[in-house]
Amino acid sequence: MPQPSLVTHDLTVRFGGHVAVDAVSCAFTPGELTAIVGPNGAGKTTYFNLISGQIRATAGRVELLGQDITRLPVSARTEAGLGRAFQLTNLFPRLTVLENVRLVVQARARRGFNLWTMAQGHRDLIDQAEQVLERVRLTHLANQTVAALSHGDQRKLEVAAMIALKPRVFMFDEPTAGMSVEEAPVILDLIAGIKADAQATVLLVEHKMDVIRSLADRIIVLHNGALVADGPPAEVMASDVVQEAYLGKELTDV
Amino acid sequence: MMRLLSGDAPRSRVLALLLALILLALAFAPFLFPGSRSLETAARICVVIVLVASYDLLLGYGGIVSFAHTMFFGMGAYGVAIAADRMGPGYDALALGALAGLIAAGIVALLVALLSLRVRAIFFAMITLAIASAVAVLVSQLSAYTGGEDGMNLRIPRELTPAFRMGEVFGLRITGKILNYYLVFTGCLALFLVMLRIVNSPFGRVMLAIRENAFRAEAIGYRVVVYRAVATCLSAMIAALAGSLFAIWLRYVGPSTTLGMELMMDILLIVVIGGMGTMYGAVVGTAIFVLAQNYLKELMGGLSEATSALPLIPDLLSPDRWLLWLGVLFILSVYFFPTGIVGRLRGTR
Predict the structure, then answer these.
(1) Which of A246, B54, B58, B81 could form a disulfide with B238 if both were Cys (CB 3.0 to 4.6 A apart)?
(2) Burial state string for B84-111 with b = 16 or more CB within 10 A and e = fewer than 16
């Protein structure tokens, strides 16, 4: 059993009296794709926000590769090896497709404080960005501004940015949301490609059961902010807990 | 040539032509437009270009709204004035004063940035406004050091004053005033090229990214607060150097010429008219703005006389109404060129 790359210990956040994420303890290992499921409002995205740092935890800890990152700002978590793609498309709309990826490569190379050289002169960064665009088949759109792209291509670019970031832990929040049936498989193929790397830990929030069935090695179920089930897909999907959580019935026994 | 411009081509033939024209006019101003008033205007254009461009570094590239920019400009100007006052008229006093102003501006900018860049943009703008007003009051109160409301006259080396003569070139008598102009021109040109370099560096790209989407910039690993603080410091320090040059040129500093809100408003207007986040917008915008400020009155006087036979029109064109027409020009330019003159010329939406 490999060492877990990401661990949450009793991770909790309260908004006033409402407990949005309730003492979730869970470990994620490299080479494994974990799907996080649960009804709307179960706390899946909030759990993601706690891990990537957009929200600070009320209690509990987050550990990435053995390092406590609970109090680190978002950018430091990214530097430590965390990569997050968002539910709503989140890019630099007026910059070009290539520049969107190049900025990610530049961040990873830590050359942002380079004041006295020309950005165009850092050929290696541009080459790397172009390679990533080729991998996701966006090369033909490299010089378009993001705002001019279709929704599907924008989502593809977000995955491209994740690939360019080369994190140890990938977090996808409904990557196929709002995509047509024809476009979605491209994204899923890319995620399957990421998963093929045994070093990568992948977390995926998803609603579509067929997606989960084809990609996930493991499912965890959140309900009212608490972790209520954890195991292989077939087992978890057959369990009463999941059936009840999705049907919205009261949980009598957890 | 492209190396000098840091690879940032004008990307429009009209813009390239305009820029070349302005550069040539400023480079040969003493020969092309003799007379002390036109030289005064040319020097003012040089200094304001740098001041506006350094503000564009903040607003156009960083998306940071600050009202304290003239405060940093004033720090450079007062640094030179106070040093010259204490140490006497020497180049060492000028250099030391400029350096002191530069360092003071850098430190104050860092403090302002670290104290307030975490808050929302509107609060940051308010805080800078408060600090700038406080400093302006302080300068007028500490009259033992700053000359108060009267300001102070500078004693500068004789080679930079009109009293100094050194022969003729192309029929123009070269005085210290002209040497002083070339000091200002060269200094401003160098500062502008430095800024062009900064905005086209990897750092400049990060600033553009932060302006576009700070949330995402942070998520891909850029510490937004630190980048904004660095941009604020750089912009303040360049403004301070522009202030030092301005003080040496005018041989006078006072609250209204360097610290006033009026100047701050001019800067804001020029950035918007020229085109935010373009650097070249500062050049074109400043040239048009300062020329209009200085010569619109005369132009209108001429037009008023020429149309004196007609009813009503000469009254509308009376030189007393020049501010009205300046206002109309701004409204029209913002309405028709929402991305500024440079944005328009480059054909971007």
Answers:
(1) B54
(2) bbeeeeeeebbebbbbbbbebbbebbee
SS3 sequence of B247-294:
HHHHCEECHHHHCCHHHHHHHHHHHHHHCCCCCHHHHHHHHHHHHHHH
Contacting residues of B for A73, CB less than 8 Å apart: 218, 223
Q: Please state, for a pLDDT cut of 90, what percent of chain A lies above it.
A: 77
Q: Using an 8 Å CB-CB cutoff, list chain A residues near B201.
A: 114-119
Residues A83-127: pLDDT tens digits? Answer: 999 988 899 999 999 999 999 999 999 999 999 999 999 999 999
Q: Quote the crossing angle between the two packed helices B202-212 and A97-108, to the nearest 10°.
A: 120
Q: Which residues of B touch A79 (CB under 8 A)?
A: 221
* CATH code reported for the domain at B13-345: 1.10.3470
- pLDDT confidence of residue B2: 77
Whether residue A65 lies inside any domain: the answer is: yes
Query: So what's the pLDDT on residue B326?
Result: 82
B94, B80 Cβ separation under 8 angstroms: yes
Per-residue tokens: A143: 């010089």
Work out whether strand A82-85 and strand A169-173 pair parallel, antiparallel, or are unpaired: parallel
Query: CB of B273 within 8 A of CB of B339?
Result: no
Tens-place pLDDT, residues A165-224? 999 999 999 998 888 888 889 999 999 999 998 889 999 998 888 888 889 999 999 999
* Domain segments of chain B as ranges: 13-345
Any A CB within 8 A of B11 CB: no
pLDDT digits (tens, 9 = 90+) for A167-180: 999 999 999 888 88
Cβ–Cβ below 8 Å for A73 and B202: no
Q: Which of residues 109-148 of A touch B (CB under 8 A)?
A: 111-122
Residue of chain A whose Cα is closest to the Cα of B213:
A92
Asked if the Cβ–Cβ distance from B206 to A120 is below 8 Å, we say no
Q: In total, how many domains does chain A have?
A: 1
What band does A253 get if pLDDT is binned at 50, 70 and 90? very low
Domain ranges, residue A91: 6-95+165-247
Taking only the tens place, the pLDDT of each residue in B265-294 is 999 999 999 999 999 999 999 999 999 988
| Average pLDDT over chain B, rounded to an integer | 92
Q: How many beta-carbon contacts under 8 Å exist across A and B?
A: 90
Q: What is the CATH number of the domain that holds A240?
A: 3.40.50.300
Q: What is the dihedral of CA B336, B338, B339, B345, to 10 degrees?
A: 0
In a domain, A106, yes or no: no
pLDDT at residue A249 above 70?
no
Residues of chain B numbered 176-215 and touching chain A (CB < 8 Å): 197-198, 200-206, 208-209, 212-213, 215
Query: Rounded distance, CA B154 to CA B266, Å?
Result: 25
